[in-house]
Amino acid sequence: MKVEIERERCISSGNCVLVSPNVFDQDDHAIVRLHTDTVDEPDVASVEEAVEGCPAAAISIT
Amino acid sequence: MTGGGVDSSVVVVGAGVAGASTVQALRRRGHTGPIVVLGAESTGPYERPPLAKGYLRGDEDASTLASPTSQLEGVAWHLGSSVIGTDLDAQWVMDEHGDRHSFDHLVVATGATPRRLNLPFGTLTLRTVSDANELKARLTPGAQLVVVGGGFLGFEVAATARQLGVEVTVVELSSQPFADRLGARAAGALLALHCAHGVRIEAGTRVIDGERRGDGAVIELANGETLDADVVLESVGAVPDLSWLTSAGLEQESGLLCNQYCEAAPGVWAVGDAARFWHSGYARYVRLEHRTNASEQAAAVAAGILGKRNRYAPVPFVWTDHYDTRIQIAGAIAAVGLGVVDHHDNGAWVETFHQSGDLVGGVAWRAIKEFQSCRRDLLARAREWPDVDPPTS
After folding, report:
1. Which residues in chain B show pLDDT less than 50?
2. Nearest by CB to B291, which of A11, A18, A52?
């Protein structure tokens, strides 16, 4: 699974890091960045949760 | 009981992020029925928190605030169209143009409007992008801004105004600003930060009189001080905007009272700043004017509309930005007393609060990443909360 983020949409809630810390990270301004854009099985469910829980709809998966 | 089908018709009153997030959550969860959104403002949904910060400072423009939800398919957006009345039995709302909109489910997402003190001179408030434009035009270098009401919004504007070269005085009724929201330690640190940036703070006092002078005002405080202002911002809280629901006979108590599923009556749901819902973990009614609550509650309401009601019992989470400092708050903060502090690099710290040995809340000072473990612990605790039913009357 591939994950994409729209940094300009991010409102910096940190919800994605909260549920999926292996994939998501925050910069010094709390804006989302990725550890990796390729998600393997153990993290799939948490990334789906991050998509659902992003208040700004800034995360998508393909 | 209203049906919970995927093809039910939904009317959302309010086109802010709470309403828009509800629409988005409905579609994401497979809802295919007609959705009508009615919004009083002429603009589509947008992020409000930057209005006091990046937008006011000029770092962000209206296009970066806009929410993508307005592009969802099969949703009829009626913007610049306030709702003036409703008949819940007949299941319709009426907009200001006299058009009726029928629903199976009604979502109350009208948010709140700034409280006004009826001061004897002109003041601005900050809630909408148009408010922000008006304020921005007045915050010229060297201008004197008086902020009446020293909460998160008032002090965020104070910080932005200082960055714009504006002279700032904040007047706050409480002698200990922020203490009830942040705890004593972070409250003290935040006030010290503002003092260090040259903000004058008049705490424990209030405006007793004043008069217009030019475009500004001369303001008299109860402590005997007199302030000259070129521009005055009132930031003394917001009142849920529910006047259009008065005839519906639903209970209101500074917020539309709803149960643990965010349901005020069968098929009538409330989300965001307008909702006062039964928090089954805290065993009390709460109203959360937080950005994160707007979208989390929206997901709960969408699930409820689709017949999958779940108790909505969030761990409250909010942040506030001042200069280069972000303060995050999660859970319940003790109004008095100090918590346990963990110090990190570069002056960052996290303070955690406990009750009977259990973690109940935390505050983070410039500790964005370090706070994640506290938030995780609070969420884990929340899973053990008892499910307390609302009182029956």
Report:
1. 1
2. A11
